[in-house]
Amino acid sequence: MRDRLFSIIYKYNLHPNKNLGQNFLIVPDIIERNVERAELSEKDIVLEIGPGLGVLTDELAKKAGKVYAIEKDRRIIEILRKEYSWPNVKLIEGDAVKVEWPRFDKIVSNLPYQISSPVTFKLLKHEFERAVLIYQLEFAERMVAKPGDRNYSRLSLMVQAKANVELVERIGKGAFWPKPKVDSAVVIIEPKPEGERIELNENLVKALFQHRRSTVVSALKKSAHMIGVDKKTIKSYLSSLPHAEKRVFQLSPEDVLDIEAYLEENDLLSKKWRKV
Ligand SMILES: C[S@@+](CC[C@H](N)C(=O)[O-])C[C@H]1O[C@@H](n2cnc3c(N)ncnc32)[C@H](O)[C@@H]1O
């Protein structure tokens, strides 16, 4: 696998594009483990973001019924078309953040780190069974952080409102060519059963996390404009706000839902920002 990758690189005189996060996996064991973690069968439709030179795509194609691979770099798409003749892989040329994703059951990818955040938020809007994704370590740690943790953030809260997430393996820089500057990690994401998923008002979450170390009362005063309410109006209601004295970074998704319900009851969320 490693030999094949480097022979393609030399053959096409490929210079990896840093801006596109082109750090290719060169350790077959990691690829194997991630394919195993996806528990693929012939019934599965798999989505891959950023197939690069096809090392992971090739293994996915052997186990899944169908693979969709979205790649932004036209040169890479041309190389993949010349080098492989997968019967069950459809290459989609485009930006994974912008193009519409096909329906899929599982997503397995070594993500370009520049788009980790928009891809993760986009993923959470889709129905799927399981995601096995490689992220930058620091991002992965934020995804799994619990309320009160040093690195608990808007991302942690939004992801955990809808899914169970687990960091299952750390990966050193040497597993990629060229070597990235940061370590990486594998994260498994599984959507919670429908009845347990919490739909949050994203705008309220943004308003709160603008001031993640403040108390909820103080954060809402400072961010009142972000939820479409003036400071004076909101101040008069804040004394009976649920979780008022908690710090924002200690809020669980359920706590935010309580706050949202209270603001809704008192007509304190701008209509523009209400959930439909
Ligand atoms: C980290 S490399 C992974 C390559 C390959 N899967 C591997 O593991 O060796 C990320 C890949 O994503 C592609 N890419 C970068 N930005 C993208 C975007 N916005 N949409 C789709 N693909 C993108 C890059 O061109 C590159 O091929």
TrEMBL record:
Subcellular location: Cytoplasm
Main location: cytoplasm
Domain Ribosomal RNA adenine methylase transferase N-terminal per the UniProt entry, residue ranges: 30-193
Keyword Disulfide bond applies: no
Record's keyword annotation contains RNA-binding: yes
Pfam families per UniProt: RrnaAD (PF00398)
Binding site for S-adenosyl-L-methionine: 23, 25, 50, 71, 95, 110
Known function: Specifically dimethylates two adjacent adenosines in the loop of a conserved hairpin near the 3'-end of 16S rRNA in the 30S particle. May play a critical role in biogenesis of 30S subunits.
UniProt similarity note: Belongs to the class I-like SAM-binding methyltransferase superfamily. rRNA adenine N(6)-methyltransferase family. RsmA subfamily.
Protein name: Probable ribosomal RNA small subunit methyltransferase A
Species in which this protein is naturally found: Thermococcus guaymasensis DSM 11113
